Amino acid sequence: MGLGLVAGACGEDPPLAYTVETEANFMASCSGPPPARAEPGDAEAATQVRVANIQRDICECVYDDTKSGLNYSRFSEYDAQLKADLTRELQAFVTTIVANCVTQEVKL
What's the whole-model pTM score? Predict the structure, then answer.
């Protein structure tokens, strides 16, 4: 699961608050494109669809919890740090959100 946080539009002033575009960019970088539909009887494809759906649910949870608990300015700062160094550890706040969402969404 990638966690690229936001991608600004070229040539435009960056947003000052969470936007529809912020969410779309987050979801695209977090969960990627949806998988193709599984044909009946194709167990491997069905598993890929289930995994992709779980990943999407986790990403939605992470975005929602981040948006409700982190002001946009701080969110943008974290995003810039990750873009500058993709090996950088996530801030503790974001790591906690991700862990909580995984626990909430993945029912083993």
Answer: 0.77
pLDDT averages per 10-residue partition of the chain, 108 residues: 47 77 91 79 86 92 94 89 81 88 83
**63 within 8 A of 23, measured Cβ to Cβ:** yes
**Residue ranges per structural domain of the chain:** 20-105
Contacts 24+ apart (CB under 8 A), 69-77: 69/93, 69/97, 70/94, 72/15, 72/16, 72/17, 72/18, 72/22, 73/16, 75/5, 75/6, 75/18, 76/5, 76/6, 76/14
Spatial distance between the Cα atoms of 70 and 1, rounded to a whole number of angstroms: 20
